[in-house]
Design a protein that fits this description.
alpha/beta, 8 strands, binds the ligand O=C(O)C1=N[C@H](C(=O)O)C[C@H](O)C1, DapA-like, 4-hydroxy-tetrahydrodipicolinate synthase
Length: 314
Amino acid sequence: MTKMRIEGSFVALITPFNADGSIDFGGFRTLIDWQAKNGTSAVLIMGSTGEVSMLTPEERREIVEKTAKMKTGGMKMFYGCTGTSTAATIAYLKHAKSAGADGAILAAPAYICAPEDDIEAFFAECADAVELPIGIYNNPPRVKSDLHWDHLLRLMKHPNIVVLKESTTRVGQVAQVCAAQPDATIMCCDSPNLGLVVPTMSLGGHGTANMTGNIDPAGMAQLSTPWADPAQSVVFRETYLRLLPLLHFTYSAINPVAVKSLMQAVGLPAGDLRRPLTGLKPDHLARGLAIVRRLGLDEKYGWKTAPVLPLAAE
Ligand SMILES: O=C(O)C1=N[C@H](C(=O)O)C[C@H](O)C1
């Protein structure tokens, strides 16, 4: 069977909360429609950007059940299904499949810092256990281990493993993976600090698995377009350099603090962060809103952004 292929912008969505801290499903509806309308190819619900580690198992299942029914057009709906163990992860995968998910993204279980061989075996066992397209997320900043490309290339041969979402700290690894031309979608995190976007897109990558698409979905769709012809490299360069201040801003605090605070400030469904995470301080937020205005995102998306006056010096 031909593997599902995703190209373009794969946006890791925030989890919108109501004022009482409960899940804002109306907000999810609005954000999913807005992403689809602005050229997003797939969304990841309950990734790190979705504050997944602070959601209860009941909330996680309810989010899949309710948002999978919000599917819009061809935009793929993937879900963060990583549990605290292999068994817990397989249970989330089976539930996501039964609830109508298009796919799932898995990272190595957090906190245990398992050795690379165990993590490879974890991904393979999960992919064997459920007939569901799976994306593997190599995310060393969050789980310590940085899977070597040998492990990744073996895993990408699995019929159910369809996406690599790369956040490696070894930039050279991207070239090794692209050179191997695996039968899977190669995508990278949009963090400018990791510096993976330029090598990934220039070496034949299929797009970015990003979170900045929460505040500029059309811009990230343009940036994440595969280089089918040399002209796209020029579009890419111009877009990357134009969006660089926004990329640095969305990663100027631990994800998703900056992007969620900015979304709330421009009036998008977002709500507060779940404690112990807290929103940006006013002067930090003011810098983000200045970038939004400088890029013309408020006019592009119709936001009325009142200038935020930085706090008077203490
Ligand atoms: O939501 C995610 O998953 C993402 N994770 C990275 C992180 O660990 O913050 C960033 C990425 O672009 C989205």
